[in-house]
From TrEMBL:
The gene is rsmD. The lineage of its organism: Bacteria, Bacillati, Bacillota, Bacilli, Bacillales. PANTHER family: METHYLTRANSFERASE. It holds the Pfam family Cons_hypoth95. The keyword Lyase does not apply. InterPro entries: RNA_MeTrfase_RsmD, SAM-dependent_MTases_sf. This is 16S rRNA (Guanine(966)-N(2))-methyltransferase RsmD.
């Protein structure tokens, strides 16, 4: 696993050991950023199921100003911090150990909004539609922003969640990516 493009292009990233975290493959990650980017001029990103920090770090490398990473797994949080340090992004990132729902509620209190939100939960524990509902209800997505939801290809997410619409869906083997705006 590595940073694909931007200022840290080619930088290797550590993966979370074990089988509880399923990293986004480089092929899928490159496709995501070709669709939403490929490069950015600022903005904030939320990597809600951070894992190794792969997606948020890629966004930082491509020009996002700040990233917030959340994962409930202690080892994943350590790996995210290590990867941020190796990339010299610790000053542009915040990392929290928390579950997704509580993290979203904490972010509501901060009154922040994100240009990009990555949702890549474990396939067996997906609550993507409910989480997008919270994001919608509390205006966590900035105007013109995009939610990128990675899920099992057998799952069909709703076409509309609140005022968000699924603008695109791509399938890569057993992985699907749904883009909401």
């Amino acid at each position: 696993m590595r940073v694909i493009s931007g200022e840290k292009k080619g930088q290797p990233l550590k993966a979370v050991p074990g089988t509880t975290t399923r990293p986004t493959t480089d092929k899928v990650k490159e496709s995501i950023f070709n669709i939403i980017g490929p490069y950015f001029d600022g903005g904030w990103v939320l990597d809600l199921y951070g894992g190794s920090g792969n997606l948020g770090i890629e966004a930082l490398s491509r020009g996002v100003e700040k990233a917030i990473f959340v994962d409930q797994n202690r080892k994943a949080v350590e790996i995210i911090k290590d990867n941020l340090k190796v990339c010299s992004y610790t000053d542009r990132a915040e990392v929290y150990r928390n579950d997704a729902k509580r993290a979203l509620k904490a972010l509501i209190k901060r009154e922040v909004s994100f240009t990009y939100i990555f949702l890549d939960p474990p396939y067996a524990e997906q609550k993507i539609e409910a989480e997008i509902g919270i994001i919608h209800d509390f205006n966590l997505l900035a105007s013109g922003g995009t939610i990128v939801a990675e899920h099992d290809s057998t799952i069909e997410l709703a076409e509309h969640i609140g005022s968000f619409s699924c603008k695109r869906r791509e399938v890569y083997g057993d992985t699907a990516i749904s883009f909401y705006e």
